[in-house]
Amino acid sequence: MGIIASRRRRRRGGGVQDGNPNPVVVRNQNEFKFEGGPRNVPRVPNTFDELSPELERVEEEIRKYILQNTSCKSPASTAVRMPDQDAKTDNDDKPEFSKQHSELVREAWCKERKIGSIQKEYQKAFTMICLQPEWIRYTKSLAVLRKIGEFTEENKDIKKALSDHNFLKSTVLKVVTKAYKLRSRTAAISHKCLICGEVIYTTLVRLWSSLGWRRPHMTLGLQYWLHLGEADELIAVLNGVTERGARCLSVQRQAFDLVVKHADFLLWRAKRRHRNRPETKNPQGDAKLTYAEAMDRCRTIFEEYVDQHKLMAFDSAFRGPTTAYYMDQGRAAYPKYFRNHGLNWWLASMMSTIGMQMPIIPLLDDSGSGGVCAFWHAPGTTRMWKEFQRLENFGRRYDAIPKLKRMRKKSFGTKIISQNDFFGIKLNTSPQDFATRVVTCEPSVRAKFALYLERLCHFFTRDFFCSKAISILMQENADNPQLLGFRECMEVIFQEYRKDRPDTVTEESFVEYVYDEEKTKYDTARVNNVFHYVGITKERVPEPTRSRRRSAAQSPVNRSVPQVPQKLMDTIEKMVKEGSTFMAIMRECRRLQLCNNAEFMVAYQKVKTKNLNLAS
């Protein structure tokens, strides 16, 4: 018992060691030295226990700026930002050219491209994309970094404070204390992540130290977390950032992106809550949106959706097939290498060849090439592509696709594809060098690499993009609240769209217009033309001729009573007045077997339009 008690006292910092009754116990050689005797609680060092008056003043200015910024009338920019504008950085904060070299390369790759400036082998993939050029090279991640950079440039004192190590430590402690509702700073310092078991405070400080010129961006992002975040959601994102921040440099960059993206989400949500407060609404109540407001919100929604679509396209063209190939070959560790390092090589090559910027900003000087191989040239992958290119499998994991899950082992041949080169291009340098080589290599190699770009660009063709976009955006799914409000915005925009085309557009609502003649699926040509009017797709396309042009009064929706039963209208109107959500109303109507999906969408839109007219 005496030996056990002695060991316990030593773990608590007590006991006599080397004749010193109150020893210095070193918990972390790189961080702190705690003093104390038996049963003493370690105290936080004075280096950042209390912020200096200057840093306290700056923190108050940041808090005021964040709270004032939530009351802005515009939820986002009214125009799409070009990537070269988004990539503004502070050159004075980058002492070495090598640290900014990758950013300069990315800016050069993502400039506006014309078809003549792209290699002949890659022109087919480039012409498959239906999006406007600015949407190809635009990503919301860079726009958020630009907004943070603008704020730090306005006030040098704030920028200096955001680059201060002690200020960062204080911010991290406050965020951890708020998230886990801890009572002492000691508990905040030692609190561990629920996923990986790493100490949250130590991991975030080390992550900040590895970011270089991005340090002010991370500190300001954590300040947004502190002032606008809620405890439950902060626990989730802190665990995600800590799990990534404790790993290699490539994954740490993903942790930094998560910090900035969540800060942008918190700002968007605060603006939305401010706009919905009773004292900030119009005197008439919930009046209809103006055309300018609807166009602004619609572009904001597409900023979020296009990034989501790009990620799903990358999963279906690269991540999913790569995982399926390696699992089929019995190399289960390689998909993990791909998620951490291999994706940087493909993301960099997309920028250098067709100028497409993904939401994940690649680490161009990454040294790991694990998971990179010519997987689409393996025997038997044509059958795999037939499943991944289907609309219903878009963005799904390979093991969530039934036909791929049932495939027998070694379906892609027994010969293992080389991990050292890609048709003669060595994979032992960096993603930047690989992306440069796929542009300057021989035409025969470019022809083989073009297959990978064409598989990616298939998901951005007019029919595929418009079908997937309209089906997701019209659902009003609460899983991503930044996509809510699309139908309301499009109804306002559609009224202006009708005025510009009175001879060809006779439908009264957007829902009636985008459905095909049988009212069972969406008309991608009409959806594309509306998206072109908003500024999303490149060009208008001829709309397919219908059997007869009819007015709204002659439409099957209004001509035949079974198309919109009165019982269905009464049920929807009653549940809307009760405050039920869209999904709850749809489930109830399906349970009662009152309608199909097309009839429900038309009836629901009529009820909403009727209520808006009464309110106005």
List the keywords:
two-stranded antiparallel ribbon; 616 residues; 29 helices; globular; 57% helix; mainly alpha; single chain
* Count of β-strands: 4
| Helicity range | 55-70%
Low-confidence stretches: 4-50, 71-100, 548-562
Provide the structure class: mainly alpha
Strand order of the largest sheet: 1-2
Count of helical regions: 29
The rounded distance between the terminal residues' Cα atoms is 81 Å
Estimated share of beta-strand residues = under 5%
Rg: 28 Å
Provide the residue-averaged pLDDT. Answer: 76
Profile the largest sheet.
2 strands, antiparallel
Q: Could you say which overall geometry the principal axes of the C-alpha atoms support?
A: globular
Note down, in words, how this protein is organized.
- The protein has 616 residues and is mainly α.
- The chain contains 29 helices and four strands.
- It has helices at residues 2-11, 46-49, 53-69, 83-86, 97-109, 123-128, 133-136, 140-154, 156-162, 165-180, 185-190, 200-209, 215-228, 231-245, 249-275, 291-328, 334-354, 381-388, 402-405, 431-440, 443-457, 462-473, 486-500, 510-514, 524-534, 556-559, 566-577, 582-591, 597-615, and strands at 24-28, 32-35, 421-422, 425-426.
- Helix 8 packs across helix 13.
- It starts with a helix and ends with a helix.
- Residues 4-50, 71-100 and 548-562 have low confidence and may be disordered.
